[in-house]
Input
Amino acid sequence: MANIHQFEVIVVGGGGAGLMAGLYASKTAKTAIISKMYPTRSHTGAAQGGISAALGNYEEDKPEWHMYDTVKGSDYLGDQDAIEFMTNEAIDAVLELEHMGLPFDRTPEGRISQRPFGGHTNNETGKPVRRAAHAADRTGHMILQTLYQQCIKNKVNFFDEFQVLDFIMTDGKAAGVVAVELSTGELHTFHAKSVIFATGGYGRVFEVTSNAYAYTGDGPAILLRKGIPLEDMEFFQFHPTGIYKLGILITEGARGEGAVLINGKGERFMPKYAPTVKDLASRDVVSRAIYTEIKEGRGVDGKNYVYLDIRPETVNKIAAEDGRTNPDGSPLRITGEVVLQKIPDIVDFCRVYLGVDPVTQLMPVQPTAHYAMGGIPTNKFGEVVVDDKGTIVPGLFAAGECACVSVHGANRLGTNSLLDIVVFGKHAGLKAAEYAASAEFAKMPEDAESASRSEFDALRGGAGNANVYDLSNEMKNVMFADVGIYRNEKDMQSALEKVRELQKRFKDVKVGDTGKIFNTELLNAWELGNLLDIAEVVAASALNRKESRGGHSREDFPDRDDANWLKHTLITKKNGKLEISYKPVVITKHQPKPRIY
Amino acid sequence: MEVTVKIFRYNPEQDKRGHYETYKVEADENDRVLDVLELIKGHTDGSLAFRRSCAHGVCGSDAMRINGRNHLACKTLIRDVGANITIEPLLGLKVAKDLIVDMDPFFDNYKKMLPYMINDSPLPADGKERLQSPEQRARFDESTKCIMCAACTTSCPSFWASDEYYGPAAIIAAHRFIFDSRDEGASERLQVLSETDGVARCHTAFNCTNACPRDIHITQAIGEVKLAMVTGKLD
Output
């Protein structure tokens, strides 16, 4: 007999957004969080540098400045009503985390400590401002732990190691989800009034990425197959400083603490590209600068990397040149001990993976695929919006990286992802519970599990001449090379064709493991199907947008084109064909202007 | 270089007991053990089961025994362990399949520690943060680093001897709150830890400290909890 569960609210995903949604929904509604991993394994835990809020604990700061920086960072593609909502809620959100017990680092006065970050500025002077509230370089870990702990305290229901495979809709309303229990291979049907997707990103479509194996775009892929549009999928953030080849993130907080980028000739190059904030420009700007240095032959030893330098002698020399000061006005000077205290995990990563000690040696870095600005379109309450008229799917919600509110537009500011999951996770949870309080359960069809069963059967019954591991590598290579930091028509066209060829070959995958218990081969194959579907819409959306904006940089259309492209992309899949439409950007306070750092 | 990898295999749907399979793969000395497992799974035997996610030592999914000692597969490089590698599941937890063990008892022990801030006092009147000096914050910094990978608990002889013992990871979770100046639940947690299955079962073997991929001084932290229990002092 089928395993059937009923909850008023189902949250899919146990990272920061999912836990926050579950925590808030469970205050008034019968709620469960379904996660394909134990929640503490979620990728929120890998976020390092901080969460932004204009607390002003060291120096003057205002939510309005945070708003403007976010709008500018988004290259004017972010919806300003949603951005203002988020930056206004930021202070209370960070304080709430503290009240929940989050162990932030502290100022000498005992308040939450804050550090400078890329694109965070005093709007009057243009100088960097300390806005990123942090706990060493493991802020995301602390947020994940704290929210999980609060869920335990509040007795939230969890289904750990359950992979959601399908979203069920009846008469245009959410009816629930189908999931497989990994430890048994059994399918389960979860009947719900509200379903909140919080499945995270999909950086695993790219070769060099900071993202976890789990980041396979499950939520967006499931909804795409249900005819729900995805928004702004062409905008993917490449973080400037990934460890060379491995892609492991080195936080922007390192540059916040004074580190600088150095090319193969030993020159500091960021002042050329961002004269005011230099190494603390927005991520898209810094990634392009690194790529340009490499392209023009100034990589290290002719290779695809540059150096990040946090050696105290360098930091102190440059801080003196730039006139950087401590919060108390004294000149900024650091020691090896400070480096260990401020970025202990980064030091550890470099020692383990590179055999390099950042206190005395240079760190080889290259841009790494990091964050999806695009995703499932929502309004600021997490309701999924399917067109340009604000039409929602009753009972369907999304929050966190899998969603596109859009507060990040064409390029996300560092630390705004952690803010996003806390603010919009909370509001999605509240709205989902509010909806559940008045809605009836939509009818769950008798054969709810049949689509999931057929998907699995297809994977078990393929011809067997395609290999998941190889297909995956081919996809990652072509996406990183041709739909990466710099893009052009010809390369993207061939990438799109390649992805479609891989989708065809994917039909011949045969999963050898016929068992039910922890059949991770079957799961990985199913996840690759999601990645391929996502890669296709990323490439198609990127090919379609004939301008450069934020994280989307085209060699053949190098300029931003507000006259034609100041609009969001919506992409849907109908009868196997992609269709693109648009919706306007919400502009309230800040008219687009050239973006100079 | 060619690497020989001997892996513990157990599929409960087919096998009465576990056995070892040996694989030979080409790897670079800077590859992670996890990369080698992925390669074997990708090209030789897709049914090989193990957990992994972040692949850089922060999510805690891939703790396993590598050449007899607990490590994270993603934080252990071939150059650290050599060309002959034996990989086995963690000890003391039931093997579900290959390198995957049943983690539920581990998380159940964690939950017994009341692992959340307990503070019923009113929040500051200005609605802002509870104040905490950098020194007070540093007091429990070590134990905030825990990623709950279970490398410590499953290396502990006392845990092997009795799986009723909460184990070092759970005590670290308690430590994180007991020594947080904002928390008011220390006495409740110390009460839990004073029971038979609490800190008394720690015989300072130091295996936990050696196993911790986050370099937490676990044995010392457990010692601090024991001392707090005796003296009632939390500083």
Observations:
- Chain B touches chain A through 62 residues (CB under 8 Å).
- The longest helix of chain B spans residues 218-231.
- The CA atoms of residues 40 and 46 of chain B lie 8 Å apart.
